[in-house]
Amino acid sequence: MTADATAVPEADWGRAVALVRAADTVALACHVTPDGDALGSMLGFGLALRAAGKHVVASFGDRGFTVPRLLRFLPGQDLLVEPAAYPAEPSLMMTFDASTMDRLGLLAPNAGKAAELVVVDHHVSNTRFGSLHLVDPGAASTTMLVERLAGRLGLTVDRDVATCLYAGLVTDTGSFRYSATTPAAHAMAGRLIAAGLDPDAIARELWDRSPFAYLRVLGAALDRVTLEPEGAGGRGLVWTYLTRVDRARHGLPYDEVEGVIDVIRRVDEAEVAVVLKEDDEGGWNVSTRSKGAVDVARACTALGGGGHPCAAGFSSTLSPEETMASLRPLLTPDAA
Fold first, then answer.
1. In this structure, which of 150, 203, 256, 273 has its CB flanked by the most CB atoms within 10 Å?
2. Kind of pairing, strands 55-60 and 226-228?
């Protein structure tokens, strides 16, 4: 699927521009446990708005309100407030990279009471839960939609804004390795680099750093990895899990294990890779990846989650074995 400039009707772009220009305060939110695209799109837009004179407040609805270590280099974090300090009934609230209301976590009630709720997203599984939707499933990242909106608003994309948007673009395209990569994505990267950001420094922060404890926990995941040659409709399934005990043993925070799926997905014999990660409260967050023959977004949506055809996820309160038993039948190859 390729980006389509007409995926969002021009009338909707115009309405979004009018709402932002008329607002005294713009309340921004991204999905829980934010990744580079969620936080980058929100902070990038927030910085651009603030530079234009708008009052901006930004947050995400996690109980343990902490920016993941890998993303602490992003500018604009002074815009962030804890969920308890977020406007209870925003006049204008905008969400970024959240495909469902549930993905807003503690901020879902605030969104439900917003006078206007503008949803900015690129997930094919988006449920259109707002009053206005800037959703393009063909866009490589939500930051691509933010750049389009910023352009329509006449906002300046300076070095800090560009750094945030670039972080979202490169994480959701896997540094331009995933199938979501398009000519438009490369063209946007060129514009952002021209704004003065340092791509080498950003790459080091995102992919070339980890605490030593990560290697120990990765070892635990690899020790219990399972390859099912007949899984995923006979195309191969590889999966593993990480417990909170694994992390506690080495003092590793939950947000440090996001990269495990990128190791597991490399297995030649498997079309689909799955990693189950236990959070600090005992729930399981499930990450799935496909090489293209299986639509994992469809499978994850059926289990209450969502995402993209080749990268999706969901949450579970069941054990890893029970969760996999629910997921396996849904991992069927797309009809040719």
1. 273
2. unpaired
In this structure, the chain runs to a length of 336
Listed in sequence order, the DSSP H helices in the chain are 10-22, 36-51, 108-112, 142-153, 159-172, 183-194, 199-207, 212-223, 231-234, 244-250, 260-264, 296-302, 320-327
Inter-residue contact 149 to 120 (CB < 8 Å): yes
Mean per-residue pLDDT, 159-165: 98
Amino acid at 247: R
Rounded CA gap, 185 and 233, in Å?
32
* CA triple 82-123-9, angle to 5 deg: 105
Q: Phi, psi at residue 53, to the nearest 5°?
A: 100, 5
93 bridge partner residues: 27, 117
Task: Provide the phi-psi class of 233: left if phi over 0, else alpha when psi is between -120 and 50, else beta.
Answer: left
Condensed to tens digits (0 to 9), the pLDDT of residues 187-210 reads 999 999 999 999 999 999 999 999
Q: Would you put residue 3 in left (φ > 0), alpha (ψ -120 to 50) or beta?
A: beta
Measured CA to CA in angstroms, residue 72 lies from 39, 205, 234, 280, 315 at distances of: 10, 9, 41, 21, 25
Angle of CA points 171, 39, 319, to nearest 5°: 75
Hey, what are 160's tokens? 């800090």
Asked if residue 289 lies in contact with residue 296, where contact means CB atoms within 8 angstroms, the answer is yes
8 Å CB contact between 279 and 291: no
- Which pLDDT belongs to residue 307? 86
Q: What is the pTM of this model?
A: 0.88
What tokens appear for 22 in the block?
Answer: 């008329």
pLDDT per residue over 36-82, tens digit each?
A: 999 999 999 999 999 999 999 999 999 889 999 999 999 999 999 99
- Tokens representing 203 are 């790459």
Radius of gyration (C-alpha) of the chain in whole angstroms: 19
